[in-house]
Amino acid sequence: MKLPSIQKVFRESTRTFMRFPFVMVAAGTATVAALILVDYEGPPGSSVLFNILFASILGFPLMLALALVAERRGWGKSLAFSAQAIGVLLLVAYALSVPSNILCAPLLHLNRLLLLVLASSLLVAVAPFAASGQLNGFWQYNKTLLQRIILAALFSVILFAGLAIALAAVDQLFGVDVTGKRYAELGLFLLGIFATWFLLAGVPEDLDGLETLTEYPGVLKLSGQYILIPLLFVYLVILYAYLAKIAIQWSWPQGWVSGLVFGFAATGITAYLLLFPIREKTENRWIKGAARWFWIVMIPPIVVLHLAIWRRVSEYGITEMRYFGFALGAWLAAMVAYFLASRTKNIKVIPASICVLALLTSFGPWGAFRVSEKSQVDRLEQLLVQNHLLADGKVQTVQGQVSAADAGQISSIVRYLRDVHGYERIQPWFSESLKRDSTGMGLIDQEPDIVVKALGVEYVKEPIFTGGNFREIRADKDRTVNSEGYDHLLAAQRLSLGMPDFTDPNDGIAYGMDSALDVLTMREVDGRTIVDSVQVSLRPLVNSLLEEYGSVAGGGIPPEKMSASAATETMKLKVVLRRIEFRRDKGQIKPTAYDAFILYSWNRR
Description:
- The structure is a single chain.
- 55% of the residues lie in helices and 15% in strands.
- The chain has helices at 6-19, 21-39, 48-72, 77-97, 108-126, 135-174, 180-201, 218-249, 257-275, 286-297, 299-316, 320-341, 349-360, 368-386, 404-421, 448-454, 539-549; strands at residues 390-391, 394-395, 435-438, 442-445, 464-467, 470-474, 488-496, 502-504, 509-513, 519-526, 529-537, 563-567, 571-585, 588-602.
- The protein folds into four domains: 6-204, no CATH class; 218-363, no CATH class; 369-454, no CATH class; 465-602.
- The chain is globular, with a radius of gyration of 31 Å.
- Strands 5, 6, 7, 12, 13 and 14 form a six-stranded antiparallel sheet that branches. A four-stranded antiparallel sheet has the order 8-9-10-11. Strands 1-2 form a two-stranded antiparallel ribbon.
């Protein structure tokens, strides 16, 4: 294979820049801004570079889409320049909406950027072929883009690995101090300049000529027919087995099923798109039938998906994740209706509709962020009014105790608002400001525990979920354990299923758990002789904790509420649980392990 000369590489690079000048400027600006931010060594603070970085990241796909549309439609230089100038103005307006102290700003700004980048990237995929027809050209165009993206990523990784080893060699062999920042900056440069330039150089120029191409890589058929189709069948079996379980037990579907439904849908749609160009060949006629059955079997999972999300919404209100779950579920329902009823079955509808969905849900009173914020603020207001903590739109100082469940929900909502939206919607309830001064960052939102305490509620830390049916709750690590009346302490003890008995012959004590982890027995021993023993039953303690706190008090339970004690005439024993791990099995709670402090004392005979 003959390698291109340096002159040809330079010539092609210059040609690519002249073809996409606004795109390259956006990529270069984002890279420079990111490099400066990474290299900065002072205290964290506000910087206009964050505004520039966000706008430039969005500018890359947006300006590329505009440039390709101008090329495809044969716009003159003045019209093409005007269209991209309007794009620049939109980016400037977007940059002004991004807070310069983004490191402490609510997550909605980052989430909105991701939505807009998704919409702009799909615009790149669809906009040049927005007119009807030319499905093969549309498919060939996106296939070329995908191949180029994969190659750009692969070459960038190889280059990074080689250059990183070279930097490490310079550091080790010549004593040149190469800090970790340099490796990060190398990666950013390769991603922002090399990968971008390489990708743009491979964007097809003759878009009209793509319609006549018949090239179909065998690896795509291999991936679609022998990898994705079997995987799709596995998803199908699991999904319908779960649907049968729901029908037999007549129970609400779990929220986790949404991930499986989306995985099944994504796998099936990807396989359909990969195999689309060969569906008319005699040996591949099965693709059309399989595609129709795929859309049919999607109907019951879509229903279950909406039921699962609706259950979570009815209990805990709308969040961005639940909003997008509903939106994607509605989109899937629309795709099912379209591909079952339409004769043309235009595959452009898939990316185009997702593009519109991402754009519409990123802003406005109907958007994910505004709807989710309103839902959670309304829930918080309802909880405060029920507990007489809010009246006439103002926080009230009242005597009384808020239940652990309500305190957990209030704490969770305040955490959510602080992380995702900020406190602007609830600030009018308070006479004092919900912001604090931070050196270099200006005014930032108060920590959630401060706001919750200002409401007159005991703050409950975030619950800990270990996945599936496994869960754990913990005592507040910032509170002390009362050891009054006890002479000895065994700290950080692990009590789990199948553990051997603990024995300390020097101190003359031993302890062990029963097989169900319900009872701890402490023994005073003299050699092999048991002198005395005392038992503490932990099961009533665990049941009362779950009844009072449920799953909302992951790390905020006072230690004294997680303790149990017992005594005989000569021995005293107190067990303070620092963490309880348990699982739900057929509706029953079964502890699997405890982390505990064991305090004891005795009067020796």
